[in-house]
C-alpha cells in the first residue's frame, strides 16, 4: 500500500509521515481491481455491494462515468497498484520530533557546500625530494 500511496497524488510528503504510515495504514484504502475510471465504476456497481439493484438494471450503468464521479468526489488517485483513496480516518502522529533519526536511516540531508568540503580537506604538500631523476622531471 505504501508504494501505491507514494506513487499517487496522496503521497506522504515528510519523513515523519513515512515513519508514521505503519500506524496509520487505515488512513488509505486501496482497491487493486481499479486502475482506471471504468474499472472503478465496475467495482462500485458490481463488487462493492454499494449499489443495490437487480443485475439487469446494472447493465444500464455507465461504469466509466460512475468511476469518474466517484474518483472526483472521493479525491482518490489511480496508480499501477490500483485506486487509492483517503478513508476519512484521522491521521495520528506517532513520531516524536524530539527524537533524532539515526544517521543510517536518514534518506535526505544537507550536503556540505563545496567551500566547506574544501576547508575540511587537508592540504596536500608535495614531498621534498633529495634527488630528481630524469623520469620524475617529465
Strand order of the largest sheet: 1-3-2
Report on the biggest sheet: 3 strands, antiparallel
Alpha-carbon distance between the two ends: 63 Å
Oligomerization category of the chains in this entry: single chain
Helix count, per DSSP?
Answer: 6
Q: pLDDT under 50 segments (min length 5)?
A: none
**Helix amount, in percent?**
25-40%
Strand fraction equals 5-15%
Q: Which CATH C-level class is it?
A: Mainly Alpha
How does this structure look, described?
The protein has 138 residues and is α+β, with helices and mostly antiparallel strands. It has one domain: Arc Repressor Mutant, subunit A (Orthogonal Bundle). Helices cover 33% and strands 9% of the residues. It contains six helices and three strands, in the order ααβαααββα. A hairpin with a 2-residue loop joins strand 2 and strand 3. The longest helix is centred in the middle third of the chain and has 12 residues. The protein is elongated. The protein starts with a helix and ends in an 18-residue tail after the last helix.
Short description:
This protein is of the alpha+beta class and 138 residues long.
What is the fold's blueprint, element by element?
Blueprint: H1 2-6, H2 15-20, E1 28-31, H3 37-47, H4 55-58, H5 63-74, E2 77-79, E3 82-86, H6 114-120
Antiparallel strand pairs: 1-3, 2-3
Helix pairs in contact: 3-5
Features:
138 residues, alpha+beta, Arc Repressor Mutant, subunit A, 3-stranded antiparallel beta sheet, 6 helices, 3 strands, elongated
